[in-house]
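Propose amino acids for all 102 sites.
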């Protein structure tokens, strides 16, 4: 059993070694699976981006290309979905894993 302090530190302390997922930029839904506990992020310019786990998510659709950063928490093994417009300036989503040690 993990202490409350250790659990909270794990939940709020990302590592700095990002895992990159190549994305398809076509305004359609695609699904990936998280390979670690962490945060999936989109950081770039696009007129449409939605990141979603189950029925909740983070995103925007806008007719003007805007700089955006979207972050969703995901546990290891969790499928997550994304939709990215073709005008995106980035070709990857990043998974920022949680630290596994103090």
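Proposal:
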């Amino acid at each position: 059993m993990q202490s409350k302090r250790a659990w909270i530190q794990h939940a709020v302390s990302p590592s700095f070694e990002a895992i990159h997922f190549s994305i398809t930029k076509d305004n359609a839904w695609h699904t990936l699976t998280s390979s670690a506990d962490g945060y999936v992020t989109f950081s770039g310019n696009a007129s449409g981006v939605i990141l979603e786990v189950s029925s909740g998510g983070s995103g925007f659709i806008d007719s003007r290309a805007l700089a955006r950063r979207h972050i969703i928490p995901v546990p290891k093994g969790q499928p997550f979905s994304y939709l990215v417009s073709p005008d995106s300036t980035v070709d990857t989503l990043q998974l920022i894993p949680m630290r596994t040690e103090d």
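The chain has one helix and six strands. The beta strands are 19-22, 30-33, 38-53, 56-74, 79-84, 92-97.
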